[in-house]
Design a protein that fits this description.
- The chain is α/β, with parallel strands linked by helices.
- The protein contains 15 helices and 16 strands.
- Helix 9 runs parallel beside helix 10.
- The longest helix is centred in the last third of the chain and has 27 residues.
- The protein is globular.
- It starts with a strand and ends with a helix.
Length: 416
């Protein structure tokens, strides 16, 4: 199972997270591979883009191609031909996006010591577990009740597929069973991610339910000896934007025997730093911490300073598909007319394979003529931009000049 050896530093921490499929140098940006792919990017290019590890989506892979098929293929690593570390989320975010967030356009956000890890084990091929049958019908009343596609109860969540309307149900045990078959190095306990607009009473209700689900998820994982030997499990801290709830959640989960911790749910930009700092003070110092679904450059600096080790975010590829390009001076829209005759790289001084070969004018042309290569190149550059930024942040921690690097970067970022 994954373990990490690291030491807290005044401005964040650097370490190595060891997994059965390789080491992750932290802090690290985790690329999002929702359906076992990073949209448009060949897995053979991952090393050139600085991708150490990815996170895939349990909900989407459950719907297609199904965990049974992936298990038969030998797990996600063999299925997608990626031999590096993989995480899978629990499907809990879909409780939010199909439930409270459905149709509302609500998002989640209103010196180095690297000792050898203990207990690292080789991956074990998981035995096929019998899948309980689910009714394959579409209930229009359920699908539209309360404006939701998902209904949460104490035992789990019932939902209709966004693909074909078929009816499904996730419980903590079912989520863990699916993730066992997917075979990622790091899996997550089933949780309920709330809307940032939810009031404190509901945030607490959902948090308490998440804690009960966390206990059930952990027991389901530990009872599968083969999976427990090959996969680490993270609990997920919830509590919305309320610091007291976040602290309570962190304390509750810290008392459980998780291998690491994710920090999920909704935040306010104004209080994210204070909350992260308070949360991480409650979590075990010798276990890794992952910030789920947040990874803009400014957020990464905030997270690292508060003690976060890994981050994931869909924005590099989502922005890339619509022409949004990260540069050291901020984000630009490459389809804009100003770049028609700009023969410089996407970002001056960038060493990514796109900037080394192509100009802004060329990528601008691809977008204006709707060539599929445009979004691919933009996504490749954006992924490299963030992996390289986090690599530089890591080095600044090791060199003892994190704050100077942060101030220099943020001083120019956003100047375009």
């Amino acid at each position: 199972m994954p373990t990490q050896s690291e030491t807290c530093l005044p401005a964040g921490r650097a370490g190595i997270l060891r997994t059965p499929h390789g080491d992750i140098k932290t802090p690290a940006f985790v690329a999002v591979a929702t359906k076992a792919d990073i949209k448009g990017i060949d897995v053979r290019l991952f090393p050139e883009l600085g991708i150490q590890t990815i996170i895939s989506n349990t909900y989407h892979l459950y719907l297609s191609p199904g965990e049974q098929l992936i298990d038969k293929a030998g797990g996600l690593h063999k299925f997608m031909a990626f031999d590096g570390p993989i995480m899978t989320d629990s499907g809990g975010f879909q409780v939010f996006s199909l439930g409270e967030g459905f149709g509302k356009k609500v998002s989640k956000v209103q010196p180095e010591h690297e000792g050898l890890a203990k207990g690292s084990r080789a991956p074990v091929h998981l035995s096929l577990l019998q899948e309980p049958s689910v009714p394959a019908f579409y209930d229009s009343e359920l699908a539209t009740s309360h404006g939701k596609l998902a209904i949460v109860d104490e035992e789990g969540v019932s939902f209709t597929s966004h693909v074909d309307g078929s009816f499904h149900r996730f419980t903590p045990e079912r989520s863990i069973e699916i993730q066992h078959k997917l075979g990622a190095d790091i899996i997550y306990a089933f949780d309920e991610c709330t809307s940032p607009a939810a009031d404190k009473a509901y945030q607490k209700e959902a948090m308490d339910r998440t804690h009960r689900w966390a206990d059930r998820s952990l027991k389901a994982h530990r009872q599968n000896l083969a999976a427990n030997a090959a996969q680490g499990i993270y609990g997920i801290v919830q509590g919305g934007r309320y610091a007291d709830l976040r602290i309570e959640s962190a304390r509750t989960l810290a008392a459980m025997d998780f291998d690491g911790y994710g920090i999920g749910g909704s935040f306010s930009k104004q209080d994210i730093l204070g909350i992260l700092d308070k949360v991480n003070r409650e979590l075990p110092n010798d276990k890794p911490r992952h910030l789920l679904g947040i990874g803009e450059p400014e957020d990464i600096f905030i997270g690292v300073e508060a003690g976060i080790d890994t981050f994931d975010c869909v924005l590099p590829t989502r922005n890339g598909r619509t022409g949004g390009i990260y540069t050291t001076r901020g984000k630009v829209q490459i389809p804009n007319a100003e770049f028609r005759e700009d023969f410089g790289p996407l970002d001056e001084g960038c060493a990514c394979p796109v900037c080394l070969k192509h100009t802004r004018a060329y990528v601008h042309h691809l977008f204006r003529t709707h060539e599929m290569l445009g979004p691919i190149l933009a996504s490749m550059h954006n992924i490299f931009f963030l992996t390289n930024l986090v690599s530089q942040i890591r080095q600044s921690i090791l060199d003892g000049n994190f704050h100077a690097f942060r101030d220099t970067f943020l001083g120019s970022y956003g100047k375009v």
